[in-house]
Amino acid sequence: MRIVVINHVSLDGVMQAPGRADEDTRGGFEQGGWSLPYGDAVMGEVMSVRMAQSGGLLLGRRSYQDLLSYWNTQPDSPFTGALNNAPKYVASTTLAEPLPWPNSTLLKGDIACAGSDLKARPGRDLHVLGSGALIQSLMRHNLIDEYMLTMHPLVLGAGRRLFADGSPFTSLRLIDSTTTTTGVLIATYRPVERASS
């Protein structure tokens, strides 16, 4: 399996709380729901195609709990059933089994080992949504195969960033891009192997 990060980001790299005002208010963040005005049919189509290729989700604890609490209150959404049925792998040192969401597996031990084990399995892509701390850990161990970022034309000025200070050096190659009618650039990147000296 490949590990693919799919995230909304502002032009200044903020990924915090794109979907709802109350999604993540850590640090006094008050701009939650910032991605909503930028949704359109183009983004919907790109996301639908990508999610149809999903072999499941790889999530950190916060994102897992947030998705669970939100989508289980949306019984009429087509995403609810899809998310309930999807395999979900959860990186957490504080959660315990059994996990409350169907088809959820708690990853045991070090994320480097668990991530390598997941990548060694055959199957479709595992998608990482949200999960900033998990992404940082995966980056440090060179376990991310691709990034699909929806870059929104706004500067938030504060909030948790996808590539926080201290992120490992990573060179990326653009492999695909689409621009939506609202000015969102959907860009897909793959890490470039560094030549050894």
Task: Give a quick set of tags describing it.
197 residues, alpha/beta, 8 strands, Dihydrofolate Reductase, subunit A
Structure description:
The protein is α/β, with parallel strands linked by helices and 197 residues long. It has a domain of 101 residues: Dihydrofolate Reductase, subunit A (3-Layer(aba) Sandwich), CATH 3.40.430. The chain is 25% helix and 25% strand. The protein has 5 helices and 8 strands, in the order βαβααββαβαβββ. It has an 8-stranded mixed sheet, sandwiched between helices. The mean pLDDT is 93.
**Beta-strand level of the residues, as a percent range?**
25-35%
| Strand neighbour order, sheet with most strands | 4-3-2-5-1-6-8-7
Distance between the termini: 29 Å
Quickly give the CATH architecture of the domain at 53-153: 3-Layer(aba) Sandwich
- 3D shape: globular
**SSE series:** EHEHHEEHEHEEE
Largest sheet geometry? 8 strands, mixed
Count up the helices: 5
Low-confidence stretches: none
Please count the beta strands (DSSP E, at least 2 residues each). Answer: 8
Describe the structure concisely for a colleague.
Helices cover 25% and strands 25% of the residues. The chain has helices at 41-52, 61-71, 78-85, 111-120, 132-140, and strands spanning 3-10, 54-60, 88-91, 104-107, 125-129, 146-152, 172-179, 185-191. Strand 7 (172-179) and strand 8 (185-191) form a beta hairpin.
